[in-house]
Each structure stands twice: as structure tokens, then as C-alpha cells.
Amino acid sequence: MKKKRSNESGFLDDRIFSNDEDVLIKYTKAFILGMKKGGILSTVKHFPGNTETDPHFSKSIIDVDKDIFYKEFINPFRKIIYASEDPVLISHAEVSCIDKKPFCFSKIGIEKILRSELNFKGLIITDDMAMKALKTHGRSTADNVLLALAAGCDMVMCSEPKFKELVEVISKKMKTESDFLKRIDDAVFNILKTKIKMGIIDEECKPIEKYKFNKEKFYKVKKSAEDVLKNSKQSK
Prior knowledge:
The protein is an alpha/beta fold. 46% of the residues lie in helices and 8% in strands. The strands form 2 sheets. A 4-stranded parallel sheet has the order 1-3-5-6, covered by helices on one side. Helix 4 (141-151) links the parallel strand 5 (124-128) and strand 6 (155-157). Helix 4 crosses helix 5 and helix 5 packs across helix 6. The longest helix has 20 residues, at 178-197.
């Protein structure tokens, strides 16, 4: 969720509700509320915004002054996530007036702006750590994961089949750096708090199985959703 600027169509295109901020806020709130009523936790993204550059393939930089950044990028998010406990996904874009690094690596962006200024209390999730926007200065996916967690992200997303390797890298850093261990403790607390809130686990962290997974129903609903998207694209 963010206000669409004319030069963003290359990446965000029809992934945004509207160019009009009032419509954007109204639709976003309605969507989040609808998801909650359906028992689904939604994630607002990509905080604090993106550019027309697709971060899957190259570095993305939001190059505006602070006044424009707060007015056109932060304010729409403020109206949605202020003091919220719902998840937020952090952008890979670098905001040049805030920090000379991707926002998911920025303690200024995450701790000062998101946590303090927006009083955000929820779960912070990264975008894919394997995107080329982060593969600069010789950084590996493992390097990216450690930087994002250290900056304040609670969960990391990775499309590469490196789960075991990443767990080992995180574990090693936890054993050697007390500050990083504290950060992981906080991250795990935020994750568990969210799972308790959603009724996935109880306060003793034991699984709560309200409904057994219905494979047949899942694929039926998935097919229906795919048909809706297909028909929507054909009608344009």
C-alpha cells in the first residue's frame, strides 16, 4: 500500500487501489477489515514505498527531499498503520534523504520512523532477500538476512532454497553477538505474539487446531481465485 506516483507504473502498475489518496486509504482499510473478518492476517506493503524500478532485477532508489517523502510516502501509511499490530512488509528501496542503504537494512527507517514516529507495534516482514536490489557490494543472501534482522525486521522472506544455511548463519551470529541475540529474542516475541493473537498457538505456545486443513476445498477456492484474476485481465 502506498500512494502511486506517475513514474511507478512500471513496477506497481495495477497492484495499487487508486491514484487518489482518499480512495487508497478507504479501500485499504476496508480490505484489511475484510481479511480480519475472514480470519486472515493481511500485510501492508511495501513500506515506505517503491519506485518504477523493479527490485527483483535492480537497485531501487527513492530520491526525494524529506518534505515530499513524509507527505507523499509516509503519510498514507501513517493513516493505515499508526499504532497498528498488523504486519508490515519493508521495501528494498533506498530512501536517499533518510539513509544510504535499502530501507530493510535501515535502523533509522525501521526503529525511528516505523516503530517510534508511527508507533507501530506489529510484525515487520522483509521482501525477498534474494532480489537483485540487495545483491550489491558483493553481499550474499545470508549477508542480507543478517542485516535485515539486525536493523529491526522480525521475519525474513527468501525464495532461494537456503533455509538450512540461513538458519545456521543466524544461529552462529546469535552465539557470538549479544546485541544480535537480543534482537532475535525481540523478533521471536513479535512472531509468537502475532500467532497468539491469530489463534494459531495458545499462551503456552502450544498449537491450536481449530480447523483441519481441507485440501479439496483449498484447491477449489484457489482455482476460483485464479479464474477471477484471469477474467479481470481479459476484460481490460
